[in-house]
Amino acid sequence: MKISGLNFYRLRNEEWFQLFTEFRDLVLKYSPGALNIAELWATFLLLYADADTALEIIRKSADTALMIEADHVRDHTFRGFADAVKSARNHFDPARRAAADRLTVLFDHFGNLARKAPNEETAGIYNLLQELDSGTPGAPLPVDVLGLRDWAARLAADNAAYEALVKDRNAEVAQRSKLRMKEVRHELQETYYRMTARVEATMTLNGDVPPFTDFANEWNAFLKRYADVLAQRAGMHHPPVPPAGTDE
Predict the structure, then answer these.
(1) At how many degrees (to 10) do helices 149-206 and 13-30 cross?
(2) pLDDT, tens digit, for every residue of 205-222?
(3) How does pLDDT run across 121-143, given as a tens digit for each residue?
(4) How far apart are CA 68 and CA 148, in angstroms?
(5) Which of 28, 58, 166, 245 has the fewest CB atoms within 10 Å distance of its CB?
(6) How many whole angstroms separate alpha carbon 166 and alpha carbon 61?
(7) CB–CB of 15/6 below 8 Å?
(8) What is the mean predicted confidence (pLDDT) over 47-59?
(9) Helices (H) then strands (E): counts for the chain
(10) How far apart are CA 121 and CA 76, in angstroms?
(11) Where is 92: in which H helix or E strand?
(12) CA triplet 150, 154, 155: central angle to 5 degrees?
């Protein structure tokens, strides 16, 4: 009895990892010792854990100290800007008080951006700064009436600095993890081939006897499911060509 083949390289990372999770669980069900693959099992588990780690980093890049510090800097700038607007509401000049009131409405609309999630804060600050520059054509903008343009410029710079760090960090971590994921996929697959070859060799010597045949039958059913997924995906990308002579 043979264990079915499958082109693992066509599986996406999440699919690939799920398949080998099912393989791990099935081996545990029948026992590595009973399947005569105990000496390969420790290697498989180490590579499986390595793949899990690499995939998790791809899923979510970890924050760095630089990113955290940059986030604190822009939080401080945002609060300083908001405080400057609040203070201007008590200005002796009625025009400045009116300008401060208009900006207060705007700040109240966006809320305390320093308490938002990082990505939400980035977008919120960007939108706030855009609104600061919108108004009646030809009329002075409240932010300029109050002389707070330097606060707006600083907030824009701090927000851009944080966003740049996020992009650089995500790109760097993701690239390293993708390279490691590619390596560990190959290594784990090679171990898998050795394990399944051992199971097949044992069945060849001893005949189709349990637990080997039960294991192989169940695993082939799993492989068939994934083969169907790949076939369906290939069909979606390559629709069938109509027979010659048809009008379709």
Answers:
(1) 40
(2) 888 778 999 999 999 999
(3) 999 999 999 999 987 777 899 99
(4) 26
(5) 245
(6) 9
(7) no
(8) 82
(9) 8, 0
(10) 13
(11) none
(12) 120
Element at 207 (helix H, strand E):
none
Find tokens 């010597």 and name the residue. 205
Give long-range contacts, CB 8 A cutoff, 24+ apart: 210-218: 211/30, 211/31, 211/34, 211/35, 212/1, 212/35, 213/1, 214/30, 215/26, 215/27, 215/30, 215/35, 216/1, 216/2, 216/3, 218/26
Distance of alpha carbon 155 from alpha carbon 81, whole angstroms: 8
Other C-beta atoms within 10 Å of 172: how many?
Answer: 12
Q: Residue 143 is which amino acid?
A: V
Find the Cα–Cα–Cα–Cα dihedral 210, 214, 220, 221, rounded to 10°. Answer: 170
Residue 211: asked if its preceding bond is cis (omega within 30°), the reply is: yes
At position 115, the amino acid (one-letter code) is R
Q: What radius of gyration, in Å, describes the C-alpha atoms of the chain?
A: 30
- The one-letter amino acid code at 126 reads Y
Predicted confidence at residue 245, as pLDDT, reads 42
Nearest to 133 by CA among 116, 152, 114: 152
Identify residue 209 by its one-letter amino acid code. V
Identify residue 158 by its one-letter amino acid code.
D
Q: In the prediction, which pLDDT does 167 show?
A: 77
CB 35 within 8 A of CB 201: no
Residues constituting the chain: 248
Find tokens 């966003």 and name the residue: 163
